[in-house]
């Protein structure tokens, strides 16, 4: 998994009652874009370092069309 700041991290729940989490990747420390990532979670308005698991995916940030 590779990401850039501004990309979204989506984490699907593993059980039916688990909520889906979505956050914006704020910081990527490795030049090749590999985890861990500093993520600002949208629903919780907090940040945490994340090593994404198998239920996670990265959605690229939308490029501005100036």
How would you sum up this structure, described in words?
It is a single chain. The chain is an all-beta fold. The chain has one domain (8-59). It is built from no helices and 5 strands. It has strands at residues 8-11, 21-28, 37-41, 46-50, 56-59. The chain has a 5-stranded antiparallel β-sheet with strand order 4-3-2-1-5, with no helix packed on it. The model has no long low-confidence stretch (mean pLDDT 91).
Features:
5-stranded antiparallel beta sheet, 5 strands, 66 residues
Write the layout of secondary structure elements.
Elements: E1 8-11, E2 21-28, E3 37-41, E4 46-50, E5 56-59
Antiparallel strand pairs: 1-2, 1-5, 2-3, 3-4
Tally of discrete structural domains = 1
Question: How much strand content do the residues show?
Answer: 35-45%
State the low-pLDDT regions, or none: none
Helices and strands: which structural class? mainly beta
Number of strands: 5
Q: How far apart are the first and last residues' alpha carbons, in Å?
A: 28 Å
Average pLDDT, to the nearest integer? 91
* Shape category: globular
Topology as H/E string? EEEEE
Walk across the major sheet and give the strand order: 4-3-2-1-5
Instruction: Return Rg in Å.
Output: 12 Å
Fraction of residues in H or I helices: under 10%
Oligomerization state = single chain
Major sheet size, sense and barrel closure: 5 strands, antiparallel
Tally of contiguous helical segments: 0
């Amino acid at each position: 998994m590779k990401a850039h700041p501004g990309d979204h991290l989506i984490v699907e729940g593993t059980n039916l009652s688990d909520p889906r989490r979505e956050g914006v990747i704020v910081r990527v420390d490795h030049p090749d874009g590999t985890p861990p990532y500093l993520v600002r979670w949208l629903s919780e308005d907090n940040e945490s370092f994340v090593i994404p698991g198998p239920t996670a995916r990265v959605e690229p940030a939308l490029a501005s069309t100036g």
